[in-house]
Amino acid sequence: MSAPRLVRHDTVDSTNERAFAALAAGTARDGDVHTARAQTAGRGARGRAWASAPGEGLYASVVLLPDPPAPPPAALTMAAGLAVQDLLHALGLAGARLKWPNDVLVGQRKLAGILIESRGFDPRRPAFVCGIGLNALQQTFTPEVEARGATSLAREGVALAPEAALDRLLPHLAARLAEARERPADLCAAFAAAAGLLEGPVRVLRGEVELRGRITAFGLDGLALETGAELVRIPLEHATGVSPV
Ligand code: BTN
To answer: Exposure check for the chain: N or C terminus, fewer CB within 10 A?
Structure first.
């Protein structure tokens, strides 16, 4: 990721959408960061909406134009999640952890999420948008978001405005993206530790199928799950959920 160039929006549909618009217009550069005060159509993973109340959360989308060969999207999701966890640890939230693939949790509650997207992907000129949503100043959420289990920096006792959170996040993001490029095995080891994947039994969702066992290897080429009956190899893009039991 190059030195970040900030593009500040007020109210937009989605900062990911604004980043894609800049890519389509040919004005986007690697490292551009689109932020907004509010989103009217903030997107979450699995087709969900991302609650984006004005001024309360960090809504940021980073344009990534890596040299080919393109990194797998899972590497970018892990790098961004680890960068957010690094920030939370630096803010004193020692219990911040990750949940495969894109959740950043404190305790059982979600504080941030990652959404990596690409469009019209050309392997000769890879382009991704790395969306990061981080709850900062929220004291309350809608009943629906509350029911899913949400938290914010403020609720965890940390007073930090969204713009300040972004300033502090970007160096961690640059470092983790460099790690993804230069030392992917270290990145995967850090993710596995942050998500508690190697400590004991786990539950893996492969599409709709649930498997249980112990992970014996976790890398960009997939994970190996010892179920007791067999050793199953699962590409990361097929693992829709992985969590300790
Ligand atoms: C998730 O569901 O965990 C992913 C949430 C990603 C939300 C962020 S907010 C900034 C960017 N713009 C979007 O529309 N989504 C991402």
So the answer is: C
Closest by CA position to 152, among listed 55, 39, 57, 31: 57
Q: Looking at residue 98, what is its pLDDT?
A: 98
Structural domain tally of the chain? Answer: 2
131 CB within 6 A, ligand 1: yes
Q: Would you give the DSSP letter of residue 70?
A: P
pLDDT of 138 above 90: yes
35 lines ligand 1 (CB under 6 A): no
Hey, is 76 helix, strand or coil? Answer: helix
Ligand 1 contact, 60 CB (< 6 A):
yes
2, pLDDT greater than 80: no
CB within 8 Å of 105: residues ≥ 6 apart: 96, 97, 98, 99, 111
For range 130-153, the mean pLDDT: 97
- Predicted local distance difference test score (pLDDT) of residue 162: 98
Range of the domain at 206: 202-244
Q: Residues 224, 148: one domain? A: no
pTM equals: 0.96
Atom of ligand 1 nearest to the CA of 14: 14
57-95 residue pLDDT tens: 999 999 999 999 999 999 999 999 999 999 999 999 999
Q: Among positive and negative, which fits the CA dihedral 14, 15, 16, 21?
A: positive
Separation of alpha carbons 89 and 108, rounded Å: 16
Judgement on whether residues 188 and 224 belong to the same structural domain of the protein: no
Could you tell me if 120 and 238 lie in one domain? no
